[in-house]
Every structure is written in C-alpha cells, then in structure tokens.
Amino acid sequence: MPAGRLDREAEVARRAAEAAGAVLRRHFRTSLAAETKGDLSPVTEADRAAEAAMRRILAEAFPEDGILGEEYGAEGEGRARLWVIDPLDGTRAFITGRPLFAVLIALLEEGSPVLGLIAQPVLGELWLGVRGQGLSFTSPLGGRAGTRRCPTLARAELAATTPAMFDPEERARFERLAARVGRVSWGGDAYAYGLLALGLIDIIAEADLKPWDWTALVPVVEEAGGIVRDWEGHPLTFGAKGRIIALGDPARLEEVIDLLA
Amino acid sequence: MPAGRLDREAEVARRAAEAAGAVLRRHFRTSLAAETKGDLSPVTEADRAAEAAMRRILAEAFPEDGILGEEYGAEGEGRARLWVIDPLDGTRAFITGRPLFAVLIALLEEGSPVLGLIAQPVLGELWLGVRGQGLSFTSPLGGRAGTRRCPTLARAELAATTPAMFDPEERARFERLAARVGRVSWGGDAYAYGLLALGLIDIIAEADLKPWDWTALVPVVEEAGGIVRDWEGHPLTFGAKGRIIALGDPARLEEVIDLLA
After folding, report:
1. CA-based end-to-end distance of chain A
2. What is the pTM of this model?
C-alpha cells in the first residue's frame, strides 16, 4: 500500500489493537468470572482492561480526537474526529472459547467512518480498511482481501450472529430473506464481516447493533468491494436502529432490501 | 497417559485425522465449488478426498474392522468393531472460512463408542478420548481437558448449531430449555462438544444428528467428566432420532430432560 493520508492513524490503531489483544489472550479459555450488566450482555474484567489499554494509546497519540467505547462511554464526542472502539466484539465467542471474537477500531471524520480495523488476537488475523486505499488482510490461516460476485441469491451464503438479535417483526423479515438464499450460518459477530470481505460470505443481515459494533466494519467491507447499508438501503448513522445489511456484491442490494421490507 | 489397550488404534486414528486434515487445509478459504446433494447439505471435493484418505489408512491398519463414513457409506457394518468417520463436520463453517470445522473419528466395539477423536486441522487442535483412559487435548490456543460443574441452569452456557436442525415441535422444546439458561450461542457443530469437554460450555442440545456426527463426541465428552444422552435420557443408539444432549455436569441431566420433555 503506498503512503497514505491516514498512515499514522493506521499504525496507532494497530498498536491499540495489539494492546487489547494481549489482554484478551491472557484471559482466553481461562475461568474468568462473567458479570451480567443490566442488558444481560456478559462483561468481563478482560473487556474493561482491554478498552482501557486502547484508550490510553489513542488518547496519547491523538489528544485532539474524541473516543467512544462500549465500556467507558464517550469523551469529546462532538469533535471533528472520533475513534469508536470495541475491545471485545463477540463476548459469547470469547467466553465459550471460540477464537472468533474481535477487537474493533474505527475512525470517523465528521461522522463518517474512514478507517476500520478488525483484529482476531488469538489467531493473529488483522483486517485494516482505509477509505480510498483498499483493504489489507494478514492471517496465518490464509484468505485474500476482496469480496466475491453473487450473481443469484439462490446460491448466496447468508450469516447472522443469533436469532435473538431480532424482534418478532425483524425476525419475520429476516426469514423472508433466509428462505431465498442458499444457506444460513449462525454465530458470526464482527468476524463474519471479515469473512465477507474475503469473499467467503455473501450477505449479513443483523439488527440491534450499537455504533461500536458496526462502525469499524464499514471501511473493511466497502474497501473490499462490498457495501454496508441499513435495512432501508441508507448509509448507517449513529442513533439509527442498528439494523445492518452487508453485501459482498452491491448489485444484490435492491433485491435484499425488497425482501427485508 | 500410561500404555493402554487401544494405543495402536489411537495412533492410527491420529494418522487418519492428519491425512484428512492435510486435504482440508489445502482447500480452506479457497474458492472450492460446493455441490448440493439431495438433502441440500453442501458437499465438496475436499470432503470426499479427505474421507478416502482416512479409509485407506484405517482399512490398511485394521482390515478386520468395518468402516462407516458420511460420503462413502458402510463396509463391513456387521463386524465386532466399526470405525465411524466424518472427514468434515461443520461444512458450513468450512465453506465460510471459519476454522471451527472438524475431522471426527470414532471406534465402536459391539455398538458402543470406546474411542473418539475431534481434530481441527487448521488450528492444530486435537481431542482424543479413550474409554476408561481419560481425554487428552492439545492446542496452541490453550484450554484444558475437563468439564466444569454447573450448580444452576440459570448461569449455564447452552449451545446448538442452528435453529434449522429442529422441527417445530423440537424447536418449542429447545426454547423451553433456552429460556432457563444463562446464555445461548449458535454455530457450534462438533467443535462445541470439544469446548464443553474443556469446561467452556455447559449444555448442548441438538437434533437431526447422524451417527457420524455424534459417535466420536461420546468418548470425548464422557472421558472429560460429562455425559451424552438422547432427549429421553438414554444412551444414543444407531437408528435413533439423532436428538442429543451433552452435559458438562451430569448432575443437571434430570432437569434438562424435564425441560426438553
């Protein structure tokens, strides 16, 4: 990749992800005590320590920027640039010992995600998308950056994390889409968006995502040739319902939106 | 582990799993053409090549034994000893690039599984349970053999591969159990039974499993301290409905069966 405008940001984001990953690796497959928050999502000591480590690195490198994270909330949210971080996406995967959880980092400029990072710290995989500069992917497991064409929904791979993320009406809409595709696989979290960016999954349709769940995914998917929208076909915005469609092949967008309507 | 009665069988099973794994690694995250069988399960060239490799090794080492596999059916099924193999459990995981598929090998004596092997060939993880000799587990990702106690269902981790494996009646029964546990995670396949044997998942309840899906799991789970039964609480048998309960803590069996009744 040639030298680009956000090279320093990318380098700092990698360092922050590595710091969070080191914390998570120490706790992976150990008997950590999972607490339960009001919203019933499991939270761990690892989660909070990892976010604190990321915040320190980002705040030191870019003191002018705001930071929004799942565990410690927002600092300087009104600023021109905002880092949105999730130290542990896929807490269920982490707690049950599946190496498919992720560290997520996004940089927003005037509300629009220009840099997105997905790291899997146990396997040593890293997706880094920078707007206008493409997606870089490194992994000891193989795979190449780039979504695939999907000429027909009938052979499409659809993924979603869990049926529990949908309310009954959303579930019915999702099932209409599921009935038309080739296969559905469950248990994805952010990692599934990384697989879509490698041309291994065609469609992801999810609901109830928070900004720290989805912001990093947009540059990863779109710099790999895909598209990320809400269920009405609009770009995602903060404060929206958190319903997301990611497509490897943007040509299928209208069809998928019609089925989810 | 001290020298045991089935040491040679275990050694040959490891070699067979390694041969299958080498085939699968070559195809992982490449654009292999997924066919579609009558039952709509995806089948790949890799799948068949991996089973053929395993059959050659097992048949050469134990010409007196029968072999039953998903792709090439049964040979010598009536013999006292039967190898039951699945070269690629979790085909959806494999096709979508998730390193959570598995090679499964079981040895049955007079219909009862005495040896079970789960291998994850991309990550280099191996579970090997031999009746009366315990479970051995090796992995570069960490984790230790041994299920955990589960004093109350309210904090239990429940897993299942996909809601699509249940018919409507089974789904209602599963939901009764799901409503009582701490959390549900999806997308497991055989790998989830491996995680249960490491004390990371408490309960797995599934349906529609074939003999090559479940036979290898029994010695893995039971030699780690857990228990495997059908939904009525009986040991699984060939020709049954393929409804399975695996519990890390056998003390919860009655309660789980009541909820699934």
Report:
1. 39
2. 0.92
